[in-house]
Write a structure and sequence with these properties.
Residues 1-21 form the signal peptide. This is ABC transporter substrate-binding protein. InterPro entries: SBP. By secondary structure, this protein is an alpha/beta fold. The chain folds into 2 domains: 39-153 and 305-374, D-Maltodextrin-Binding Protein, domain 2 (3-Layer(aba) Sandwich), CATH 3.40.190; 157-303 and 383-420, 3-Layer(aba) Sandwich (D-Maltodextrin-Binding Protein, domain 2), CATH 3.40.190.10. The chain has 18 helices and 15 strands. It has helices at 2-36, 50-65, 79-91, 106-111, 121-125, 134-138, 162-167, 179-189, 209-214, 232-246, 256-264, 278-284, 317-330, 333-343, 356-359, 362-370, 384-400, 405-420; strands at 39-45, 70-76, 98-102, 141-142, 145-146, 149-154, 157-161, 197-199, 220-221, 226-227, 268-273, 288-291, 302-303, 305-310, 374-375. It has a 5-stranded mixed sheet. Strands 8-11-7-12 form a 4-stranded mixed sheet. Helix 2 (50-65) runs antiparallel to helix 14. 37% of the residues are buried. Residues 1-36 have low confidence and may be disordered.
C-alpha cells in the first residue's frame, strides 16, 4: 500500500515536471516566432560626413522603437563606390532594400530602368503629400511617376565670419546682398600679410553658374539642348570674377575642401557652401552667419539639390512595404525637425514651420529664408555630369588662374557642343 502511494507521488511529480517542461518550451518558442516576423532592410548611402552620424542615430532610434519588427542596417560609402556597385547589384538581385542618394541621379536611374515605381507611397502610408513643399517633392518625380521620397533639400548659401567682418569695419549683421557688395566686402576682408582672405573662390567649385544666372546668363537649356554658354553676358560676368580673383581676395589653386577648412579656421571671411557645414561650425563655437546668394543685375539664384530615398528595381513587395514604413517615419515632423536642427538643413514641411523651436532658431531661419531662390542646375539632365567635369570645371580653373576669358568660354562652348550633339 505504502509502495503504491510512493509510486503515485513519483508519477504525479513526473507529470507535473513534464507539464512545466512543456510550459518552458512554449516560452522559449515565442521569441523564435517573433524573430521569424522581423524584417531586416539594407540601406546604401553616401553620408560620409558628420551628418552621417546623425543619420545613423535616427535610424538606430527607429530600429529600437518601431513596432513592425523592422531593422534598418545602413552601409555608408563614398558616392563613386555606390554608383559603381549599384548597377551590378541590381542585375544580380543583390541590391540593397533601398538607397539614399542625390536627386540628380533619379533621371539617370529611370533611364536605365533601375528604380521601382513608388507612386502609391502617399496613399499606402496615409502620408499627406500636400504638407511638403511642392518644389521639393517634385524633384523625386519623373513625369507623373514617383521614384523617390524626399529626405532633405538644400541650396548653396553664403557663410560669413562675423568676427572678421567686425575687425574689417564691416557690419557683422549686414552680409552682402548684391554682387557689388560682395566685391566690396571681399576686398575689405582681405589682408594677405596676415594670411586673411575675403572670399573663397575654389577652382573645383561646381556652382559658378549661380553668378551667371545672377546677371541673366546661363549655360544650357536642358529642354532643348541649346548651348547658351558663349554670350557677352557670361563673358562679362566671368571677367568680373577673374578680376576679383586677381585682386587677391582668394588663395591661388584653392579647392572646395581647403576653402571649408580655411573658413573654419578664420582665414577666409566668406564662402559659398551647402548646409552640411553648419554642424561643424556650431561644434567649433564659431561666430558666423548665413545669408542667401547675393544678387546680380537679374536677381539672386542658387543651385538646388537634395537627397531622396529610392527603391532599386526588382525589390519584392514585402520589402518594398517595409521600406515605405521607414520612409513615412522619416517624413514625420519629429524626425525632420531633428535633422534640420542638428544639421541646419532647411525646413520644407508646412506643419513643422509652425513649431516654436523652429521659429526661434536663428541659423535655421536664415537657411530657410535663403532657400527661396532655388533653381535647377541640370538636375536629372543626361549630360549634367559631363558638363560639370568637361566644361565648367576646366573653364573656371583656367579663368581663375588668369587665362583669357573670351578664349576659355569659346573652348568650353565647343566642348559643350560636342557633348550635346553626340
Amino acid at each position: 500500500m505504502k509502495l503504491k502511494k510512493i509510486t503515485s507521488i513519483i508519477l504525479a511529480c513526473t507529470m507535473t515536471a513534464a507539464l512545466f517542461a512543456g510550459c518552458g518550451k512554449k516560452e522559449t518558442k515565442e521569441p523564435e516566432s517573433a524573430k521569424a516576423n522581423e524584417t531586416t532592410l539594407s540601406l546604401w548611402t553616401v553620408f560620409t560626413g558628420s551628418d552621417g552620424d546623425v543619420l545613423k542615430e535616427i535610424i538606430n532610434k527607429y530600429n529600437e522603437t518601431n513596432e513592425d519588427g523592422i531593422t534598418v542596417e545602413v552601409d555608408i560609402m563614398d558616392n563613386d563606390t555606390l554608383q559603381s556597385k549599384l548597377p551590378a547589384a541590381i542585375s544580380t538581385d543583390t541590391a540593397p532594400s533601398f538607397i539614399l542618394v542625390g536627386i540628380e541621379y533619379i533621371q539617370e536611374y529611370v533611364n536605365n530602368d533601375s528604380l521601382e515605381d513608388i507612386s502609391d507611397f502617399w496613399k499606402a502610408t496615409n502620408t499627406n503629400e500636400d504638407n511638403y513643399y511642392e518644389n521639393v517633392v517634385a524633384k523625386s518625380y519623373v513625369g507623373d511617376t514617383l521614384y523617390g521620397v524626399p529626405m532633405q533639400y538644400n541650396l548653396q548659401y553664403l557663410y560669413y565670419n562675423k568676427d572678421m567682418f567686425s575687425d574689417a569695419g564691416l557690419n557683422p549683421d549686414a552680409p552682402p546682398t548684391t554682387f557689388d557688395e560682395l566685391e566690396e566686402c571681399a576686398k575689405a576682408l582681405t589682408d594677405k600679410d596676415q594670411g586673411k582672405y575675403g572670399l573663397a573662390m575654389p577652382t573645383d567649385f561646381g556652382y559658378y553658374v549661380q553668378y551667371l544666372w545672377g546677371n541673366g546668363g546661363d549655360v544650357i537649356n536642358t529642354a532643348t539642348d541649346e548651348n547658351l554658354l558663349n554670350s557677352e553676358t557670361n563673358i562679362k560676368t566671368l571677367t568680373w570674377l577673374q578680376e576679383l580673383k586677381k585682386a587677391g581676395v582668394s588663395p591661388d589653386g584653392l579647392t572646395s575642401a581647403e576653402a571649408d577648412t580655411m573658413f573654419q579656421s578664420g582665414q577666409i571671411g566668406m564662402c559659398l557652401a551647402g548646409p552640411w557645414n553648419i554642424n561643424i561650425l556650431n561644434g567649433l563655437g564659431m561666430n558666423y552667419g548665413i545669408a542667401a546668394m547675393p544678387s546680380g543685375s537679374d536677381g539672386a539664384y542658387s543651385a538646388e539639390g537634395g537627397c531622396s530615398y529610392m527603391i532599386p528595381k526588382g525589390t519584392d513587395e514585402a520589402t518594398k512595404n517595409a521600406v515605405y514604413k521607414f520612409m513615412a517615419y522619416w517624413l514625420t515632423d519629429d524626425v525632420l525637425k531633428e535633422w534640420s536642427v542638428r544639421n541646419g538643413f532647411p525646413v520644407w514641411s508646412y506643419s513643422l514651420l509652425e513649431d516654436e523651436e523652429i521659429k526661434s532658431n536663428d541659423i535655421l531661419n536664415s537657411v530657410s529664408e535663403a532657400s527661396s531662390i532655388g533653381r535647377d542646375w541640370h538636375l536629372g539632365y543626361e549630360y549634367g555630369t559631363q558638363i560639370d567635369n568637361d566644361v565648367m570645371k576646366p573653364m573656371m580653373e583656367n579663368i581663375l588662374m588668369g587665362s583669357d576669358v573670351t578664349g576659355e568660354v569659346k573652348d568650353a562652348s565647343n566642348r559643350l557642343d560636342e557633348i550635346v550633339t553626340k
